[in-house]
Design brief:
The chain is α/β, with parallel strands linked by helices and 119 residues long. It has one domain (3-116): Winged helix-like DNA-binding domain superfamily/Winged helix DNA-binding domain (Arc Repressor Mutant, subunit A). Helix content is 45%, strand content 21%. It contains 5 helices and 5 strands, in the order βαβααααβββ. The strands form 2 sheets. It has a 3-stranded parallel β-sheet. A two-stranded antiparallel sheet has the order 3-4. β3 (93-97) and β4 (103-107) form a beta hairpin. The chain is elongated. The model has no long low-confidence stretch (mean pLDDT 91).
Length: 119
């Protein structure tokens, strides 16, 4: 499994970067972060110890449904669903939707690399 590279940048910086890419003024490098957070705090909230343990559980056990994962982790299905949808928006998990509303989570990365400027 490959690593997901994430970055921290202000909303204004992300918007300026996106506009520069759209105008052809900036060409993203393959080594640039693929996912951006607006603050270290938002990154830390999403990847709390509890959520990292959840990602490891999914990666190790390959649950067939959210209900199976909820039973294994002790989390309620509703809370788990909200958390996983947020993680999906950031590309940390993929949610495969199946028949009768069944959702199977999959972790796409085994490593997350953070890139952050100090200034």
């Amino acid at each position: 499994m490959k690593a997901l590279k994430v970055g921290i940048a202000s909303y204004e910086d992300m918007k300026a970067r996106t506009m520069a890419i759209a105008k052809g003024e900036l060409r993203p490098k393959p080594t640039d972060p693929k996912v951006w957070f607006t603050s270290p705090e938002s990154f830390a909230r999403l990847l709390s110890n509890r959520n990292r343990a959840l990602l490891a559980q999914i990666s190790d056990t390959h649950p067939e449904s959210l209900h199976e994962l909820a039973a294994a982790t002790g989390r309620t299905p509703g809370n788990l669903s909200r958390t996983l949808k947020t993680m999906e928006r950031y590309g940390l998990v993929r949610l495969h939707r199946g028949e009768r509303g069944r959702v199977r989570p999959e972790v796409q990365y085994r490593e997350i690399q953070l890139e952050m400027r100090l200034s």
